[in-house]
């Protein structure tokens, strides 16, 4: 049975486009940060910074909610009950956190082997994985969507494969593709969470979900940092600006905008809007990092982006 279609609103579109802009520019910060420190160190610190950035907002929102409940005349017991975090929110917070932990770490390790612009375009494969995996959740996928997926993988081939050596697949390309798979799960789980909470009339706080995501993911990554890496405080300070930008803007702001924005946007439309991060990333990498791509890689990017647009047109038609 097909799932009901989520209505897309201008509010959601604006939030997710802003998300894409911040994410795209943060690829540059990730690349610069990796020049000074290792992957787990960068990711662990930046995600915990994201959590720290959101903590005051979480406290202010909870205090404001408690004040509204008290002003409404509820008893102290009822106020306490309504302030309690629901089991559903705790469950989704844990699942979303673990998926995010895997996605962002696979992506960060890709920077050891590839460039910011290239990683951004490969990460955009989640545009294809969202409708693909969504079909297993009862979403109808048209033939045009499957065609666009095939076209997208042709573009990925041109972007990643050296024609002089057909077996030369960059490890960074593989890691970025795995990252795209987990990000597609991330998008679908958030939509599922929003659908379930609306159906059950059980509110979930998107800011709290985002805060928990960064806290759990950052803690796990920091543990791995101490196990597998040798963090140096001087190198961390040297990478301070990229870490702060990635932590505050990419984590604290953008991922919160994603979770809140998806409440007002259908998943396939959301994935189209967020895939614009790849375009913003290539532009930012060219301006800041002076990264250049070969003609084959540029052609592969064009094919991939064309396929992305085609796949989302197909999905929009299927829900119209």
Query: How many E strands?
Result: 2
| Class computed from helices, strands and strand pairing | mainly alpha
The largest beta-sheet arranges its strands as 1-2
Q: Could you say which overall geometry the principal axes of the C-alpha atoms support? A: globular
Mean pLDDT, rounded to whole units? 83
Radius of gyration: 20 Å
Ranges with pLDDT <50 over ≥5 residues?
A: none
Helix percent band: over 70%
What is the CA–CA distance across the termini?
A: 17 Å
In this structure, how is the largest beta sheet organized? 2 strands, antiparallel
Q: Count the DSSP helices.
A: 14
Strand fraction equals under 5%
SSE string: HHHHHHHEEHHHHHHH
Description:
The chain starts with 9 loop residues before the first helix and ends with a helix. The model has no long low-confidence stretch (mean pLDDT 83). The chain is an all-alpha fold. Helix 1 (10-33) packs antiparallel against helix 5, helix 1 runs antiparallel to helix 11 and helix 4 packs across helix 9. Helices cover 78% and strands 2% of the residues. The longest helix has 33 residues, at 39-71. The protein contains 14 helices and two strands. It has helices spanning 10-33, 39-71, 76-83, 87-110, 116-123, 126-134, 143-160, 171-199, 206-228, 233-238, 240-261, 267-274, 276-289, 295-318; strands spanning 161-162, 165-169. The protein has a two-stranded antiparallel ribbon with strand order 1-2.
